[in-house]
Amino acid sequence: METDRSASADSHRARIITAAARLLAESGREAVSTRAVSAAAGVQAPTIYRLFGDKQGLLDAVAAHGFAAYLNEKTDLTPSGDPVEDLRTGWDLNIGFGLANPALYALMYGEPRPDATPPAALAAAEVLAAHIHRIAEAGRLRVDEERAAQLVHAVGGGTALALIATPEDRRDLTVSDLAREAVIAAIITDAPALAVPGPAGAAVTLRAVLPQTSALSANERSLLKEWLDRIARC
């Protein structure tokens, strides 16, 4: 009996998300009302509240579902031997995702919620963090990982939203290329950071590979991480 109820809830959830995603893509966020979604999904409005809590919970679920489906379709996300080139690929995929799914992208990034980041935006941040970490491991990162990720996120997201807001016949996609290369120049060195004089580059690289060491206790690793983060920001 419990299994039947769970299967029914999953079925309702999938239908509701599919219906809401279709309304979002066709007519924008304002079209995703509880009444419209319940009618399109063939469920009662209370079912939506029971499964998603409120309209924002439903919108978050739609965004997470859409972004996950997009990632699953992109085999280009498989890491190559060049983490910097992988960052370029990730940037271009982000811009492409935004232009192909403007309402969904605006849902993820158009209304910042510092107290409750949408699940889809969290998933995107994890993908970005993985790109940045691989660059740090290669000794190519000029600044600490958190700062680098924040800069790529801010400029990449702003560029995508600006292009979305520009009529298609007036979009200049070379703006994205220029922004991408400016960010890469700001956070990445041409040679491994250890070849650059000064302690900051060495701290960034050592911080990236610190989890690989077994010579330190957990407390020692935590303390060293704190010191390296401080040095990297100098």
UniProtKB/TrEMBL annotation:
DNA-binding annotation, residue ranges on this chain: 33-52
Alphabetical list of Gene3D superfamilies matching this protein: Tetracycline Repressor, domain 2
Example of a GO MF term: DNA-binding transcription factor activity
Keyword terms of this UniProt record: DNA-binding, Transcription, Transcription regulation
HTH tetR-type domain sequence ranges: 10-70
InterPro entries xrefs: Homeodomain-like_sf, HTH-type_TetR-like_transc_reg, HTH_TetR, Tet_transcr_reg_TetR-rel_C_sf
Keyword Chloroplast part of the UniProt annotation: no
Keyword Thylakoid (UniProt): no
Domain of life: Bacteria
Pfam families linked: TetR_N
Name of the protein described by the UniProt record: TetR/AcrR family transcriptional regulator
Species whose genome carries this gene: Actinacidiphila oryziradicis
